[in-house]
Structures are given as structure tokens and as C-alpha cells.
Amino acid sequence: MPVPAPFLDLTLDVVTLTEQLVNIESVSHAEEAIADAVDAALQSLPHLTVTRRGNTVVARTDLGRDERVVIAGHLDTVPINDNLPARRDGDILHGLGTCDMKGGDAVMLKLAADVTEPNRDITFIFYEAEEVDSVYNGLRLLAESDPELMTADFAILMEPSNAAVEAGCQGTMRVDVRTTGERSHSARSWRGVNAIHKAAPILARLNDFVARQPVIDGLTYHEGLNATGIRGGVAGNVIPDECVVEVNFRFAPDRDEANAEAFVRDFFEGFDVTVTDMAAGALPGLDRPAATAFVEAVGGQVAPKFGWTDVARFTALGVPAVNFGPGDPMFAHKQDEHVPMEHITRCEQQLKEWLA
Amino acid sequence: MPVPAPFLDLTLDVVTLTEQLVNIESVSHAEEAIADAVDAALQSLPHLTVTRRGNTVVARTDLGRDERVVIAGHLDTVPINDNLPARRDGDILHGLGTCDMKGGDAVMLKLAADVTEPNRDITFIFYEAEEVDSVYNGLRLLAESDPELMTADFAILMEPSNAAVEAGCQGTMRVDVRTTGERSHSARSWRGVNAIHKAAPILARLNDFVARQPVIDGLTYHEGLNATGIRGGVAGNVIPDECVVEVNFRFAPDRDEANAEAFVRDFFEGFDVTVTDMAAGALPGLDRPAATAFVEAVGGQVAPKFGWTDVARFTALGVPAVNFGPGDPMFAHKQDEHVPMEHITRCEQQLKEWLA
Fold first, then answer.
1. Which string of DSSP letters, residue by residue, matches B135-148?
2. pTM check: above 0.90
């Protein structure tokens, strides 16, 4: 007999519902239990049509409204780090996933249950595997298998953004910058060529990097070019024949992938550069009427998003999208991950007002 | 019933005996079988007094000669690398330990068997664990437990040195040179401090190093200061808060340990330097009569030893010592380790002439 999915009670307040979601473990690649629970809860709501793809769950209204909005959140978390179950401390909810991003998922479930006749049609997307390699990303897979389910006039991704609107996102690119040499015994080092020593100018150039800070739709982005790893060495008595500097370029959304790659290759001219990862950013899209209307509805404040998020997937489909969710992204992936309860209730309230 | 030790036939020629020794596996910390075999072979020789300490075997003549010479070789090898058993190819003997240093051990066994009335008293030392951390080194342990067994007027270490005399040895010192920074998400890199970038001047200084080449007792030594490893990095999206450059300083024997450390600390002034390993070198000692006589007896050619060897342990005990053994040290620790058979027979011949 299959184990029944944990039961989610959508009549509970949004903070308690967040707690319930947090207490269903859902580390990436193990989202079946939480997807089953979300699926069952949404199936119980007659105004929604539910579609399941793997551990991604989509629920749609179909009221023939003039406009459709996608509201999306991922169900998975990074690995457990002695930070479960959820724990309340005054106005703060602690625990893995409270910030990234089950507070946002709880808001989505409350909207799904309570806003039965929204002024815009809504597509809720609860998706799997955001915290791991993008080949597993549920939103990416959905865009391939069922692009019509992602069609909308506007999208809100409930990634933690301090319950304020963060528009667009910067792109991210990773490269290995490599030097080579010749091994020899370190007692006769002059017979070899030291690849680690040859990496000196790579680090010197990184020190000389001046970050571009372009203003786009009134928002100031901020690029970054950093070594995130370095490795080299064979043994304590061997002159090393290879050194690899892993570099991460975070680039403003006015650059596309080709431009970003050209910049990095030019920056490290004379060195062997291998691109290991690339994800384009997303322009803020604040010139689009749907985005403008949403920003005004939630208070008019908007900031640039520095980190890469799945908003870029909507942008790539031609759908303007913003990040808007409870929690400070600085606490995502931390052992002491937490979220102010007020963020969760405020997001719920503002979205209900906008959709009512 | 205990398994009998492999039998070594000391009436065989020195190359065949080398093969027999090579075919007794003796990776460091697993030298019992070869030590048992050597022990049994030496016990069968009535003119020698045999002492066993762990897997180190000492055999001495006690003829009341005016002079005593130690002849020493280690029994262990580095790990097997698909290079056993021994294989003959023309004039070359291939296999793990052929060069480092069972050719030398075989010469020692032939001297022990054949030179029953040497013109100098001889102490043969076959010792364990030379290829691993010095806390296990059989010669170091013997110097602590039974220093009288190492007392001599002169010592010959049969480390591979192309069947020629290599005098003294350079010292070796390892340090970790460390930078620290502050972690942040790489999407907001300006909130952190990149420890890898801070390592740029460490590598730049290493590139600017000019090697000292002092002449000592007519031999030109050659120092070296090299990064043998570098590591840093937390994750692909994190500004790293630590970078460690592992540096190996090979220093000429006219520096002592304190001088070497002072030089390195001064060289990396402004950085956190931790000494992780230190072994003083050994002066060539060619001004000592016993050394001069030996060099003349084997042809007068002498070169400096760049790599650190256990000759330094004899020097520390006040015993002048040289390296003299078959095999090119460049092939030690290589998959294609090998030794010219002529090196082995020449060493045997020259030592027999010197001792007869």
C-alpha cells in the first residue's frame, strides 16, 4: 500500500502553511512527497485545472480574463544542514527552505485556495530541481515539454527578494582559465616549468578588474569577475604542470551570452579559456505595461536583481517577469536560513489585493 | 604454520639478486617479507652479527679494523604502478624498485656474502619506510634506539646516483602561504573579499625568485623556491575566504634550518606563513679523509646531490656520508622505473675493490 502523501491544510494561515511545507523534506531530486502533497491540495480546488509533469505541478484558472499571470516557485531545497524541522522564534520562522522558498510556495497555495475568481487568469507553477544543474530544472523542462503552460502576459517568480520587487537578473558565466607547464622533481626545479607560477598574471588581471555598473530601466546593475576556485599541484616534491583558475563572471542584462564570452576571452587573452557554464540574464522589462502595473500595485519600489534566477527563462519566452517573494536572499543556503513572518503575510496580502 | 620468507640466494649474480628483491613486494609499511628474507640470508653468514629492529636489519663485521664504514639502503618502495614483476630488456632491468633502490640493496648483499675479511669493518643497514613520512623512517628510528649501530668513520648511502658519487644533499622545507578574505555570494561579490585574488603577489614574487648557486667543496649547488600546490574555493557561486599556496624551498647545505626559515619568511613578508616540513641538508664533507679516499677509489668524479636524502641523518650524527648507488634518480618513482645492469655490477665491483 503506498504511503499517503503528507496532507496540506489550505485553510491554515500562510505562516503555518509555510511550516508544513518546510517540514516535508524536499532536497533536490527527492521532491516526490512535497509534489504529491501540493498536487493533492490543488486537486481539491474545483476552480483549478491541475497538470503534473514529474515532480512539477501546474494549476490554472480558465476564466477567459483579458490577461494571464504566471506565479512560480520551486519546491526543492539545498541539502539539509541540521536545520529541520521549522522553528518559530518571535516573528521569525527558522529552518531549511523557509526563505528559499517555501514561504513563497505557501503564499501561492493560499492564493490558489482563496482567490477563486481572480481579475486575471492565473497559472501557478510549483517546480522541481531549481537548486541543482539546470538540466534537471523543472521550469526548463516544462518550457520544453509544455511551453503553452508558461504562456502569459506577465510572470512573478517568488524567489526571496525581501517582499519587494527585484526586476530582471544578471547573467552568469563560468570559465576555467588554465596554464600548463612541465613536471620535474622539485629538487631540480629548473628542469621543469611551474604552471602555478604562470597563473600570476591571471590573478593580477582579476585584481585590476573594474566593475561596470550600467543603469537599465532606471536600475543600477553591478557586474563582477571573480576567481571562485583555484587548483594545481601533483605532489609536494613535483613541479606542477597544470593550474586551473575557476572564474565566475556575473554580467548585467544588457550583455548577451556572446558579448559576455567575448569580454572574458579578451580579458584573459593569452590564456587557455574554457566555458563551463553560461546563463544569460534578463532585462528588467519595466517598460512593459503588465510589469509597470504590478510594481505600482505593490508599492512602486523596485530594485535590480543581481543573482541569476529563473526569471530569465520567462524572458527568453518573451514573458516579462520579476522576482517578488518573502525572505532576504542573503540567508538562502545558509545553516541559519530564516524568514520574517511579516514578509510572508505581506506578500500574500499584496498579491491578493492585486488579483482581487 | 607461518609462511616461510622468500629465499634469497646470495651466490647468484648481483643482477639476478636484484630481480629477486624486486619481486618481493615491499611498499612502505609492508616490508616484513623482504626484511625476513634479508634477515635470514644475513643470519646464514657466520662473519656477521645481525640485529633486527622492526623491519630494519643491521649486520656488522667486528674485525677490529682501524676504520668502520656504514653502507645503507632502504628496503621499501613507493606504491605499485603496474610495474611488477621485474623484466629484463637487453641491458636494462625494469620494474618498481629496480632503481630506487633494490639494485643498491643487492650490491650490499653481495658485499656481505663475498667480502668476508674486509680491510675496514662494515655495518650494513637495510631499513624500512624511507618513502613515507619521516616519523616512520627506519634509519631515523635506529638513530634514536641504537645510535651506536650507526657510528662510523664514513657512510655510503646507496641511493640512485648513476653509479657515481653525489656528495652532501640540499635541505628541503615546506610552507603554506595563506591569504584570507570574506565570503559573499558571487552575484554580490563586492560585499566580500576574494582570498584567491589576494594570492597574486605570492605568485608574482615566486616568478621573481633568483636561485642562489653556491659553490661548496668545489660542488655547485642550486636552490629552488616553488609552489607545488595551490588551493582555494568554496563553491562556484561563493567568493572564497581562503587560499593556500604550498611552497617547497630546496636550499643549499650552507644554510641551516633557521637560516632557511628566515629567508622564506622574509621572502613572503606580509603573508601568513606556516612551516609544515623541514629537513636540513648535508654538507658534502669532501674535506674529510675517509670521504676523499673513497672518492679517489671509485674514480675521483663527484657531483652535488640536489635532492634530500638520508645522508643528512649521518651528517647530523657527525658521520661524513655520500650517495653512491646504481640507477638514474630521474627514473625513481616513475611508472617506467629501470636501472642499467652495468650500474649495478660497476657499483659492486668498485666497492669490492675498495673494501678488499
1. GG-HHHHHHHH-GG
2. no
Averaged confidence pLDDT in chain A: 94
Report the helix count and the strand count for chain B, using DSSP H and E.
9, 17
pLDDT digits (tens, 9 = 90+) for B270-282: 999 999 999 999 9
Give bridge partners of residue A71 from the DSSP assignment. A124, A156
DSSP state at residue B130: -
**Secondary structure (H, E, C), A263-310:** HHHHHCCCCEEEEEEEECCECCCCCCHHHHHHHHHCCCCEEECCCCCC
Instruction: Tell me chain B's radius of gyration from C-alpha atoms.
Output: 23
C-alpha grid cell for residue B89? 630488456
ipTM: 0.84
Q: Which residues of B touch A243 (CB under 8 A)?
A: 230
* Helices within chain A (DSSP H only): 14-22, 32-43, 103-114, 138-145, 200-208, 257-267, 289-297, 311-316, 341-355
B48 beta partners: none
Which cell is B249 given? 624551498
Q: Cβ separation of A190 and B206 shorter than 8 Å?
A: no
Q: What are the cell numbers at A51?
A: 497538470
> b vs e for A270-290, b when ≥16 Cβ sit within 10 Å of the residue's Cβ?
ebebeeeeebbbbbbbbebeb
Distance CA B6, CA B101 (A): 19
Q: For residue B20, what is the enclosing H or E element?
A: helix B14-22
Cβ atoms of A245 and A227 within 8 Å: the answer is yes
Cα–Cα dist B59/B64, whole Å: 15
Cβ contact, residue pair B233, A246, below 8 Å: yes
C-alpha cell at A280: 544569460
Q: Is B252 exposed, middle or buried (0-12, 13-18, 19+ CB in 10 A)?
A: buried
Cα Rg of chain A, angstroms:
23
Question: How many residues can be counted in chain B?
Answer: 356
Chain B residues with CB-CB distance to A222 below 8 A: 188, 190
**Per-residue pLDDT for A310 more than 60?**
yes
Residue A292 has pLDDT above 90, yes or no: no
Q: Indicate which residues of A carry an active-site annotation.
A: 76, 130
Residue of chain A minimizing CA distance to B196: A227
A239 contacts in chain B (CB < 8 Å): 226, 228
Average pLDDT of the residues of chain B: 94
pLDDT band per the 50, 70, 90 thresholds, residue A33: very high
Active site residues of B: 76, 130
- Residue B144, exposed/middle/buried by CB under 10 A (0-12, 13-18, 19+)? exposed
Residues A250 and A351: their CA atoms lie apart, in Å, by: 31
